[in-house]
């Protein structure tokens, strides 16, 4: 599949007159807890020629394609990515940490990742992850039954919120480092669930262990209360503008 993805990205690059700067796997494969029927969630960041940006017209800043053959592919223009980084959006933060990279221009990921550190806003990140966790918990039925896919949405998002709150840094993308925040006995339980998920359909329904359920409820309350007292922050555009201009100049074709 990797060869298919790389060839598809090359075709997208040619047919859209863009330069793909970075491409990676997102979703459960990137988070390192896939199911056998998990899609390949391919994401990429691209830049266009200089003249594309020198226009009074509103320009598209993303590329999307129909989902087929287990492939879910879309990309964002570098300008869109930088706007989102200014808002401390978690998506670029996650893409740049993906353990599965399909391609990248030299030094691009490291340089953009270094820039991201100056735009981490704890309150925004914590609340984003808490929103995902609460949304996934709403799918619980019969008191304690949930699709295994949704349970991992709860766990990864909750632990990401906890990481941002307690460590005041961007949360890791993969589940491994996040599990270190949990008590040892729960780490083992979740690792066993990861093994189960690797052989089960994403729609497989399980019962949430009572101890794990209590942990989820307690930590959601702690993180929600902790987020309320976080200070407001704001960021300037200057470093982002410099990065944007330098990127266009470097890859103008």
What layout of secondary structure does this protein have?
Elements: H1 2-16, E1 19-26, H2 27-31, E2 40-47, H3 50-53, E3 62-64, E4 71-77, H4 78-86, H5 90-95, E5 101-104, H6 108-116, H7 122-137, E6 145-147, H8 148-167, H9 175-179, H10 184-197, E7 205-207, H11 210-228, H12 238-251
Helix pairs in contact: 4-12, 7-8, 7-11, 8-11
Descriptive key words:
253 residues; alpha+beta; Beta Polymerase, domain 2; 2 domains; five-stranded mixed beta sheet; 12 helices; 54% helix; globular; RlaP; Nucleotidyltransferase domain-containing protein; transferase; transferase activity
Average pLDDT confidence is: 94
Number of domains: 2
In CATH, the topology of the largest domain is named Beta Polymerase, domain 2
The CATH superfamily of the largest domain is identified as Beta Polymerase, domain 2
Percentage of β-strand residues: 5-15%
Order of helices and strands: HEHEHEEHHEHHEHHHEHH
> In which order are the strands of the major sheet placed?
3-4-2-1-5
Number of distinct helices: 12
Distance between the terminal alpha carbons, to the nearest Å?
30 Å
Major sheet description: 5 strands, mixed
Keywords: Transferase
GO molecular function, one term: transferase activity
Pfam family, one: RlaP
Protein name: Nucleotidyltransferase domain-containing protein
């Amino acid at each position: 599949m990797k060869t298919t993805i790389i060839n598809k990205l090359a075709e997208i690059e040619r047919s859209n007159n863009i330069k793909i700067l970075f491409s990676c796997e997102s979703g459960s494969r990137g988070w390192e807890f896939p199911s056998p029927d998990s899609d390949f969630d391919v994401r990429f960041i691209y830049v266009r020629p200089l003249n594309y940006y020198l226009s009074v017209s509103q320009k598209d800043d993303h590329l999307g394609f129909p989902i087929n053959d287990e492939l879910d592919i879309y990309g964002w223009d570098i300008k869109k990515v930088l706007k989102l980084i200014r808002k401390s959006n978690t998506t670029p933060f996650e893409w740049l940490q993906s353990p599965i990279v399909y391609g990248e221009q030299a030094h691009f990921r490291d340089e953009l990742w270094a820039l991201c550190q100056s735009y981490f806003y704890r309150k925004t990140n914590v609340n984003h992850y808490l929103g995902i966790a609460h949304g996934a918990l709403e799918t619980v039925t019969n008191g304690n039954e949930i699709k295994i896919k949704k349970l991992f949405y709860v766990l990864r998002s909750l632990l990401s919120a906890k990481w941002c709150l307690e460590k005041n840094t961007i949360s890791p993308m993969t589940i491994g480092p996040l599990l270190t925040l949990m008590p040892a006995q729960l780490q083992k339980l979740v690792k066993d669930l990861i093994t189960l998920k690797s052989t089960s359909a994403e729609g497989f329904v399980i019962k949430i262990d009572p101890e794990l359920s209590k942990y989820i409820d307690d930590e959601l309350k702690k993180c929600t209360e902790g987020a309320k007292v976080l200070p407001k922050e704001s960021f300037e555009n200057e470093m982002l503008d410099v990065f944007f201009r330098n990127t266009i100049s470097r890859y103008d074709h």
